[in-house]
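Box S1 | Example of a co-folding query
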Amino acid sequence: MNLPIRPRRNRRTAAIRSLVRENTLSPADFILPMFLHEDAENTPISSMPGVTRWSLDGLVKEAGEAHALGVPAVVLFPKIEENLKTPLAEECANDEGLVPRAIRALKAAHPTLCVITDVALDPYNSDGHDGVVRRDERGELQILNDETVEILCQQALCHARAGADIVSPSDMMDGRVAALRSALDAAGFEKVAILSYSAKYASAFYGPFRGALDSAPKEGDKKTYQMDPGNAREAIREALLDEAEGADMVMVKPAGPYLDIITRVRESTTLPVAAYQVSGEYLMIESAAAAGWVNGQAIALESLMGIKRAGADMILTYYAKRAAEWLK
Ligand code: PBG
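Box S1 (continued) | Returned holo structure for PBG
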């Protein structure tokens, strides 16, 4: 054939492929979500095989190992004891609560580790919602926006006092980024950053996570605050609002089924974009790999690459530590 243009030339050797590769994965891209509880034991989570609910000591050790492999950050998800859950989620702002103690222990043991905390009421709320629940005259469940935002500010301040580097509101209430920013600044925490879950969809992919924390809504669903999976423009609206309200980074969640949203958000804001490969995405790969149907390592890394290529600057993933090992 008379073919002067042959794209395969750029794929001929591993060396050439590495020169022309447009995107790469690095442990530095990853944020490890970690579950913790009050117990002294490290407990395997039955709804999420391969993931552990850590004791405080176990958490510090595991985070240190991930950090040593090059993972710069962890994000904390507490399982709160049933008797501490209340309608107004008071425990979320207790300076001696599980999360603030964990932050202090992590920062003391690993000063260079970036500690991110989840800001939302669901682990603390006896109704299992991310916000305060009230029943209206017709008996329907309402998730109160402004009342919730006030409590979220108390929660974020509690995390900041304990030494959190980044607070990450995952509640999807309106106006929470601006409120968190001004509450943090007024208290002298202008250095604490906000990573906002800007486009968080009402997703069935969160099922295993709610099992891990016993945090499923007791009644109703999250569709009046989390986004409709049919919507894309609305994700940009949310991201731009969060940017205007002072977010330092924005997030798209879930990641794999929402790659188009990652790309569109990436093109709409100059802020760093995070994407969360959530529990259901993780479990689909893990279960297929456990059945011997796919090569789990290859599929996991390719899924993470897809998220990176779509435009994510950082990825929250349960694979963070393992992927860091694979990439060594
Ligand atoms: C709740 C929260 C959820 C996740 C992170 N923070 C669940 C939810 O919104 O119901 C899901 C993470 C995952 O599925 O891995 N604030």
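The chain has a mean pLDDT of 97. The chain has one domain: 23-214+226-327.
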